[in-house]
Amino acid sequence: MGLGSIVFALPQFTSGLYTFTGDDVTYCDIGANATACTHKDSLSNYKYVFFLGQLLHGAGAAPLYTLGVTYLDENLPVRSSSMYIGIYYAFAIVGPAVGYLAGGAFLNIYVDVNQVNSASIGITPNSPRWVGAWWIGFLISGLLAFVVAFPMCGFPTKLPGAENFKKEREKEVYHRKGTKVGSEDGESTGACNYRHILGSVKNLVTNPTFMFLNLAAACEGNLLAGFATFAPKFIEAQFSLQASNAAQYVGYAAIPAGGGGTFLGGYLVKRFNLGVRGIIRFCLAISIPCFFCVLIFLINCENVLYAGVNINYGEFASNGTRRFMGKFTTSSCNTNCGCTLENYNPVCGIDGIMYYSPCYAGCAESIPDTDPVQYKNCSCVSYDTSTTPSYMAMTGKCESTCTMLPFFMAIFFCIMFFTFVISMPALSATLRCVPQQDSSFALGIQWIIARCLGSIPGPILFGKMIDLTCLLWQRKCDDNDGSCFFYNNKNMSLNLMGIALAGKFLSILFFTLSLIFYKASPEKEEEADPDTKETKLNGDSGVRDSQSTNTSVTSLNNGTTQPDVNKNNTGKDFTTKL
């Protein structure tokens, strides 16, 4: 992971200083011809460096979520392991959330820090040409990863006392009729040969509870990965915010929702001493309200008025209608200005309409010493002729009049909170329904399924559905589309709601099926009923006193019975006391 972070930041130090094409302030020059597009992108091959960095990130992180979780589970009591694993995953969620906050702060620092004075380049973080110091966070996280790696190498294979928890854990393994609980085939060989691997694969893939929990994890992972990647972009587009502010809003919601939800899920399993069935029922109970919270995407914000995109030039905002013309158009007010689509620098006119650049707004000059930069003599900006405005346009996007941001963030927090509350109980159910010796292998299979069907296609699916709502693409010199400058907010909301509803519905379905097909071991089934519990020793069956429904008995070798001291009259298992 440390090496991956260093590799990811490497292009900053090998690609030279950042330069941008065109002037940040582009005026309308009457009679000028549009300049030819001469800028060619020479840095595109650096994407392969980023691919390599991400590959190393994944290779380093994978053992943490398979071997690391199994290591914790094997060395902790059965009923409390979920709480500690919840703490473990809570930090795994808090980390990215802190990254959102720190990343948003770093993006307000110019990319070539200590090499270029940002005040001398003539652009601010509000400019679309601004590039923040994206690489600082990767250097910090890379160094921290190297620091943490060395003490982790000092842990033993098993902590003292691990064997004491093994037998209790085997009681909840999924049981098929005619098979032994906790087969020791793999343990007796002492080696991981191909027959053992094939046998483990067969046992796991024919375990319906395990497989349906995997599919539920894939659905949850699809949504988490998609929202983690594109929630800032969605908030930025819906509420007309800066990218850094949108990322920080997501961070503010993700820290308490992700960290608190993950910890709470693990704690509740321990607090109420839930078995596998109880855990799956708990997951279902939390998934249903989360499903309805997704309907928040039915509420969306109207797009700001954008000249040439959803309103004609020269119209007043109060009379304008959002028509979404499908293609960027110009007007007679800027035809002879020599404007080019290469110089994207949006401005907001006093008419409440946004323009592609000062040139497309017909602005002939700027007002000195203004921040943000203000413009006057804008031929495309409409205003009340009975007044003389001090300026006619200002650098930056028009602010959205939508007031739904606090409400949306509250419901979005609930969606993330409920989703993370489920994560730890679902993981605990997974570990308990498979044989102890196959737990690491089971987590490996679960992560393969969750990645291949969830977190890998999730961002791709979300990104494609968001791209379908783009109304104004950046045009490059090679006629390929670049970034999207303007989205249809309504369609974006509906597309994301459709994905989220489908994912949550499938998650509920798979949790339900895992509960229906779950079968505990016979020993566990007997323990589940306080009136019929019988512990068998040496093959002899016990005798239950028909006059007492609250006292279980233990069969002795001589056939006599005595009260089971491991169970009190309230029917609570003795392990609760321990």
Automatic annotation (TrEMBL):
InterPro entries for the chain: Kazal_dom, Kazal_dom_sf, MFS_dom, MFS_trans_sf, OATP
GO biological process: monoatomic ion transport; sodium-independent organic anion transport
Protein name: Solute carrier organic anion transporter family member
Record carries keyword tRNA processing: no
Region called Disordered, residue ranges: 526-578
Pfam families the UniProt entry points to: Kazal_2, OATP
Any one GO cellular component localisation term in the record: basolateral plasma membrane
Species, as recorded: Magallana gigas (Pacific oyster)
Keywords assigned by UniProt, alphabetized: Cell membrane, Disulfide bond, Ion transport, Membrane, Transmembrane, Transmembrane helix, Transport
TM helices/strands, residue ranges: 48-72, 84-111, 131-150, 279-299, 407-429, 441-462, 496-518
Family statement: Belongs to the organo anion transporter (TC 2.A.60) family.
PROSITE patterns: KAZAL_2, MFS
Domain Major facilitator superfamily (MFS) profile residue range list: 1-515
Domain called Kazal-like: residue spans: 327-382
